[in-house]
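Structure (tokenized):
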């Protein structure tokens, strides 16, 4: 089971916010999971393999007060979490529901935020909430040769110790295939990536570079949209490609998707 939760938050008072809100939202995620399943939270911390979740940065208007960044109590903010396993969904979902029903607060960067809403419905989350499964994604995948992805938060790939600031097709779909194979019972063979290298190209894009802080250091990533097209009409490969593009909504793209980077979704008829 895959799920995407959009949590609407409002600070109880003007809240000083650090520059690493993805890392702060990551810490909050573990705190929430531990409230329901401490053993699972510890396992996620210790596991060095592909992580079964993603975390966005804090979204919303942050004001400047001198050198401080401040979240204001008259503004609405949000954090998006996705889960890629049923165990994690079962741990996170009831905690979030309880926070919403009782208008409970959560702590982010030492400040209290009231949980105003938890949405998994696309129509209640500007298209960013959702629930699906590998089987549903696979059954619904088309064989269209054109795919457009929107990278909503800074996205980058780590390659030979460097940050790659462009969504090269083989890197993008390799990222998705690894996560798909880690968390679904429907593996996609390794031959897909050489096929992508030979047959899939960037047809159009509108991307820009954006910086994101991680404590004392920073990374640059790209945001915007990119359209891919495949010249080979192999129906099996195209179905695999489309399934992975749909899966991107839950798994994110590139590195540090658990700390505020790589939030992605597919868009239709982008020009």
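Design, position by position:
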């Amino acid at each position: 089971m895959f799920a995407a939760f959009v949590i609407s938050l409002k600070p109880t008072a003007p809240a000083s916010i650090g520059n690493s809100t993805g890392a702060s939202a990551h810490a909050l995620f573990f705190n929430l999971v531990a409230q329901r399943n401490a053993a699972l939270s510890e396992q996620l911390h210790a596991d060095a393999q592909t992580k079964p979740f993603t975390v966005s940065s804090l979204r919303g208007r942050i004001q400047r007060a001198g050198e401080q960044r401040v979240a204001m109590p008259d503004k609405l903010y949000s954090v998006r979490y996705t889960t890629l396993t049923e165990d994690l969904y079962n741990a996170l979902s009831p905690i979030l529901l309880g926070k919403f029903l009782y208008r409970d607060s959560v702590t982010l960067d030492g400040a209290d935020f009231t949980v105003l809403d938890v949405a998994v419905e696309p129509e209640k989350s500007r298209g960013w909430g959702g629930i699906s499964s590998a089987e549903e994604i696979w059954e619904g995948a088309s064989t269209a040769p054109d795919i457009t992805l929107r990278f909503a938060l800074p996205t980058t790939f780590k390659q030979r110790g460097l940050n790659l600031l462009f969504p090269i097709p083989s890197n993008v779909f390799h990222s998705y295939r690894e996560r798909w194979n880690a968390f679904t019972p429907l593996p996609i063979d390794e031959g897909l990536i050489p096929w992508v290298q030979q047959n899939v190209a960037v047809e159009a894009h509108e991307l820009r570079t954006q910086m994101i802080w991680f404590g004392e250091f920073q990374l640059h990533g790209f945001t915007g949209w990119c359209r891919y097209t495949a010249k080979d009409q192999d129906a099996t490969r195209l179905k695999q490609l489309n399934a992975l593009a749909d899966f991107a909504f839950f798994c994110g793209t590139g590195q540090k998707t658990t700390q505020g980077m790589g939030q992605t979704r597919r868009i239709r008829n982008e020009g």
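Reviewer-requested clarification: The radius of gyration is 19 Å. The first helix runs from residue 21 to 36.
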